[in-house]
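cron nightly-structures :: item 1 of 1
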Amino acid sequence: MTVEFVKAISGEVFKTVLLVSGPMLLVSLLVGLIISFFQAITQIQEFTLTFVPKILAVFLCLFLFLPWIASTLMTFTINIIEKIPVYIK
């Protein structure tokens, strides 16, 4: 294995991780910002108020994006497995 080869595989891994985790992270960020604005406006400083809507939003996002996430991960895995003969050389 060469350095360029490892670099290419690492790049694919990081790209796939960002693609798969991106939607949930963005939804969590947006819900957190909206709740923070609500708390700042109403001066309600309840810590549990931030967690429940975030958890619900992330689970809903995960439910909606699960087919796409599975497809992305399967494509990545199939590509890695198909390239095993190239990796061995």
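cron nightly-structures :: done
Residues 8-88 form one domain.
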